[in-house]
């Protein structure tokens, strides 16, 4: 089957994210989130070296480090029993001379006390994604970067949320979010297995060792290019760890249409006859 190549458009970073400190909420610091946090610190160091005001990150996670996390996530045996968010944020602050914040609670409308420019999700349940979705729909968040994975595949998608006061046709070129492209991800009726692993060996039966690291690096590279060059022509990608291949998601309506997401015109608006 031949698929017609899609010519992507160029998405440009809003100018205020280049001139002001960027506030970021990192939701989840487990397998992928723990790698993303280190990547954000590295990205912050690079951007400040280039003259950018830098990032201010708040990490949200209500979980404690278990022995099963050691080795597959960015934790050590000495961390077992401690709050994940506190451990990792403190470590990054010491290593990079930062003053980022940790919130040892689930991310949601009742626990968020600040305004964020970017929300990065590294969660593994529909309930957690619904909490992010509900938050970004009620605020002026500029970007929602979602990361997710199965045993040996992963995806990352950068989208521009619509607030409840906006309409799709008023922003026809906005980047769709993970819930725009995959609305089933919000379906509460779909069962999912969130049972925690009791050991690293059990965890490895569910997921390949470097899945989280690869999707985290790919997601950070996307943010790096957006902030370094001010524009991107793709806003996500799909990784296959069996084949070591990645398919990018172009910034193009034709690409979004393949997922069933179609940007419709304003109701009642008709094209003029030529």
Structure commentary:
This protein has 274 residues and is an alpha/beta fold. Helices cover 30% and strands 18% of the residues. It contains eight helices and ten strands. It has helices at residues 16-19, 31-49, 84-96, 126-137, 178-181, 200-206, 211-229, 253-257; strands at residues 11-12, 22-27, 55-60, 101-103, 118-121, 143-149, 153-159, 231-232, 234-240, 245-250. The strands form two sheets. The chain has an eight-stranded mixed β-sheet with strand order 4-3-2-5-6-7-9-10, sandwiched between helices. The longest helix is centred in the first third of the chain and has 19 residues, at 31-49.
Summary tags:
single chain, 274 residues, alpha/beta, eight-stranded mixed sheet, two-stranded antiparallel sheet, 8 helices, 10 strands, 30% helix
Report the span from N to C terminus.
35 Å
Main sheet attributes: strand count, strand direction, barrel closure: 8 strands, mixed
Instruction: Note the total helix count.
Output: 8
* Low-confidence runs of at least 5 consecutive residues: 197-205
Q: What's the arrangement of secondary structure elements?
A:
Layout: E1 11-12, H1 16-19, E2 22-27, H2 31-49, E3 55-60, H3 84-96, E4 101-103, E5 118-121, H4 126-137, E6 143-149, E7 153-159, H5 178-181, H6 200-206, H7 211-229, E8 231-232, E9 234-240, E10 245-250, H8 253-257
Parallel strand pairs: 2-3, 2-5, 3-4, 5-6
Antiparallel strand pairs: 1-8, 6-7, 7-9, 9-10
Helix pairs in contact: 2-3, 2-7
